[in-house]
Amino acid sequence: MRILSNETSSKIGQKITVAGWVNSRRDHGGVIFVDLRDHTGIVQLVFNPDLADFKMAEALRDEFVISATGLVRERGAGLENPNINTGKIEILVSKLEILNKSETPVVPTRDGENEAGEDLRLKYRYLDLRRPSMQQILRRRAEFNKLVREFMENEDFVEVATPILANSSPEGARDFLIPSRVHAGKFYALPQAPQQFKQLLMVGGVPRYYQIAPCFRDEDPRADRLYGDFYQIDMEMAFVDDGEVVRGITEPLIKKLVTEFAGKKLVSEEVPRLTYSEVMERFGSDKPDLRFEMELVELTETVKNTEFGVFKNAECVKAICAKGGASLSRSQIDGFTEIARREGAGGLAYLTYDGGKINSPIAKFLSEAELTEITRKTGAIDGDIVFFGADARAKVNKVLGVLRSELAGHFGLKDPNKVALAWVVDFPFYEWDDKNRRLDFGHNPFSMPKGGLAALESDDKLSIVADQFDMVLNGYEVCSGAVRNHNPEVMYKAFGNLGCNEKYVESRFGAMLNAFKFGAPPHAGCAFGIDRIFMELLNIASIRDTLAFPKNGSGVDVMMDSPAAVDSDQLKELNIKVK
Hints:
Number of strands: 24
Number of helices: 16
Structural class: alpha+beta
Number of domains: 3
Strand content: 25-35%
CATH architecture of the largest domain: 2-Layer Sandwich
Distance between the termini: 55 Å
Radius of gyration: 30 Å
């Protein structure tokens, strides 16, 4: 039975059987005490020397799996343990059974012990999962999924499973390919998202679809991104041609997860709608953390006639004011300067406001009028520091956006008990790919441009706006959605602007294009990243700890030794030769 299956006080005087793992064993002058653990908690077992199984109790070691039968009794006065739920009682054991022995654990199975490195923890994940904190994460994840399903079903969404073996399609990341044994030289792909399938469900007459969907992308791992497989709340709605409908339906779900599930406070009950261009100019990021202010301040016109060459010759000059930042040491300022350089800046100019004076190596190059206007626009007061960015506008926004987040972390502005939500709307339909020197889709090729087919005729392709939107939560993008393209002509034209002919589009999206010819309704939807939301709501340090069996930061499953080489016979059967 479970250790904490009922109120422990109600068991006093009863004979019960419990089973679990030995959490610890103590020998006190002939009387042996064992803390027995299962997923519900810990209870103390007492073994007296006159017990027939006492010799067996002496042989117990940490992580042995045992079953014990005995009498529940109150602990003696002053011997209670307030740190556990069963701290007022103990079990006087009359019968002991060793169900399995254990070698000395390679990684800790108790919280608070010297934590092993991540790779070692993941290699022995089945031991790491025994820790109460990990058990709690698994249970909380199940509660999270249950709440999502209840909400979606109450909103008349139908849960539909979509295929795992699919076709390769350009959705922003590399595909995982699976060779076909039956069809030599051809490949399946694991779906980056159920995008095509959920749109086909709309054509198929499903009014509202959702699923907690596994997704697969061969992307480089990051602190907030799992490698390989991850999960999202995927949904789509038929006869919807306005993204605000989707936002209005889904917003209450996220608020419910924040307040009821996580017990956190919303910075604002009203979730703002901010355009992509607006957040880039104000925060330097399309996923701004709105728990704090520290906005980017436009100063280009203010210093256009300055004698300071760095500002004078720049396309754009902006600043951010860090409250209390005058206390930063020289080495700390150097650290922030290095962060700016990593983002492409040549350096990091600054002004400190201290003791009624403005101090900085650049202050002598700025006129009194310029300093006065900078002070007014940034709102700087005594004790603050103002950092500047001067370069091409896109680079200035990027550098100061990263710096804003780093400064907020340094000054403790990211309150873990608060959640700031925002919708970012009106993303560029196309973007310029510097690496390949060509135009590409901004988000994905499945969105409808605002203005439809006519908008795609614009000579300035970078000015075309997509009916796309993201939800941002504490600086993380946790949702991406759009009004979908359900018109074959728009699909052909959208790809045609990138130099792709109709044959290419049909080879990649033949099923969708054919379906759209048979009365496809307008539709819209979105997908929320479960792992990222769950990590932030529960203050989990590593996104990999949101899953039972994740891969490490290099995309390797060190427990199952995957990826791994396969037998030559398997490769031959698949018509594959490894170079």
